[in-house]
Give the backbone structure.
Amino acid sequence: MFKYFIPVIVFFALAGFLVTGLYKDPTAVSSPLVGKPVPQFTLPKLWDNEIEFSESEFAGKVSLFNVWATWCLACRQEHPLLVELSNSKVVTVYGLNYKDEISEARRYLVEHGDPFEASAVDATGRVGIDWGVYGVPETFIIDKQGVIRHKHIGVITQNDVQLTLLPLIRQLHNESM
Amino acid sequence: MIKIAMIPEVGNFALIIALCLALVQGIVPILGAQTRTFQWIAIAKPAARAQLLFILISYICLTYSFITNDFSVLYVANNSNSALPIYYKFSAVWGAHEGSLLLWVLMLGIWTFAVTIFCRSLPNDMVARVLGVMGLVSSGFLLFMLLTSNPFERIFPSPMEGQDLNPLLQDPGLVIHPPMLYMGYVGFSVAFSFAIAALLGGKLDSIWARWSRPWAIFAWVFLTIGITLGSWWAYHELGWGGWWFWDPVENASFMPWLVGTALVHSLAVTDKRSSFKSWTVLLSILTFSLCLLGAFLVRSGVLVSVHAFANDPARGLYILVFLAVVIGGSLLLYAIRTPHIKSSGQFDIFSRETALLVNNVLLLVAMLTILVGTLYPLFVSAFDLPSLSVGKPYFDFVFSVLTLPLVLVVGIGPFMRWKSAVMSKVLIRLIKVAVAGIVIGIALPFIVAGKTSILVSLGVALGGWSISSAVYYLFKNAISSGFGIRGFRRIVKIPQATWGMSIAHCGIGIFVLGVTFVSAFEQVRELPMQVGQKTEMAGYEFQFEGIENVRGPNYASKQASVRVSREGRLVATLFPEKRTYLVQQNPMTEAGIDSGFLRDVYVALGEQVDEKTWGMRLYYKPFVQWIWLGAMLMATGGILAALDRRYRIRFKRGGGQHVKEKMYSKRFAIPS
């Protein structure tokens, strides 16, 4: 008789997860990485895979590190904002091209505009694991010492830029080296 | 049109009355059926019909507010604009959270109404229970609207102009996509209510399955059409040539489709063989639960998605409690009641029942992989798991693995007889089908593209296998009796449901062919083009003729014109656009597409490079239309199967207790 109770038990277990999800702001899942230096890595760059992209790239300036992919529908939504941020020169925008086809990724940037100073190619997703990437898109703000100061999960909206990202970036600019 | 000031209040009031009626419809008839109080049972139908009337009034009031640009209504102010074309004002009603809920309850009302019309051959207590369960579901949604998402909420002072409808949603495809999808979602509430009613009444027999079957098939048809339109819309409107993105909202609609497909097949077994009873009940509950779960996922903001509506924990909590009551309650009822059901109908390992069981298991596994993939972020945050990402790569991989056995079973199933099939007979037929599939798999890619690879041939062979199996099954009797008059008579005699099944299975094959060809032989070129410049791809010549500024009703647009020709003959002139919607200032891409049976030519306009040069993306997409053609064939098959004669005349032969219903059966085309 017990087997007939399995569905209802499974359902309530699932409902438990949904409750926890409800009370966690999905864009602010605590990241153990915030406040820590960026993980070490070396990856090829998107436009020239002879050149290496490593954590030293972030030194000495405030940077925004955006995890993106061409297969990610949401990334296309936030893309114009990244282009805008990059054009405004308030922050150096870098990309992590995540589990993607290089040729697709290049084509995508040609069409939609390339906001990235450079994009690292993480074809296998190995580096993404070190960065705690659990979905695409994700956006990190990194200070001049190369310390992660903020992590944003999901699409960034105009609101996020104005209310969270830009104030933080300005504050980081004022911090001394 | 004149603005009548009180219309939104009328709408609001109608909604409250609808809620009261829904509560009456949900409580009184069920109690009546349990206590055999005839007067209480009799309330079900009038209450259901009156409820629809008041929801309809409410819906018309909201539409009216849109048409008259009544921006004192917050929802209208957020989702419309006086410059919005009139046809989009109608569809803007369901363009965001509150209004789409109203559409949802309207659909539920319509389905309930349909049940009150076509249920005359059903016993009264059964009808009362079915309508009662639907009333309870409806009251849940109405209460949800009134408490957390009232579309008639006013804003003061009222703005002069509205925020406009999300430009992504300003497309003809979107005018019909959500209503179809909702018809599907909500339609499964009928099968669900039948299952719950059967559990409450303790009568779980094959007659119950036969009643519920056409309803489930119709809901499945709507869901199929809705998902197809969504995919087609994404292809046209999102401007990057893809047709499926594994976005959480797409997944939310795909999960009930998969389980709904399993349900439709399992109902067949229960109907014809009286087996799988408790399994079918469980699937009925599961399908509708997934529809509700989809609503929760989309609306609570638990998952991040492009489609995301409101992001409000109060709404999320309400839906979650509602889910817990509806799904938890039904599953509990299931757990208590089903152990007493005896499934009759023994069957061999080598039988159609087994094939359908395999089909069910595969579909369920497919659903679970999507569920896990979609909810993965939640599990991660609950357990602090080490992160690994799921996304398109995960789903693409899992699905290509699952499709293989699923399509194989689709080809095998129909040739198996119920209860016990003769292996040698089935094998002989399947070998013929397999040979046809392999020939198609090798030959067709060469004909289409002049080359092939193992994976491409495998995909094409699978598609060919499914199609040839369906065609062969349909005409096997005609073939065996020769192609003369006798053969023709045999074809005429094929039952409509068999046509339906074969056409739907054919559709799967065509879908697989479309997916395989477009992913293998698609060609893309991305290049800057100067005005006047020509370029070639896949045998087509593209000439960029110029760019023009175009003003739409609520957008400004840069429109390119591109001449597409082949061997010197003009094929089409395409006008890809980059639009900027004036109110929300979003840039939107409108692709220029020339669709054909064998290929699409697709041009998207990119960024401006310099004064005379623009980025341009050219696509050659062979067989891409077959993806939607296949899906539409599945839907067509479903319609044919649901309208089979069998459901219309069954009560004539139905025996004892249904003799009385004989007289009704002639009057109504659709049963139960």
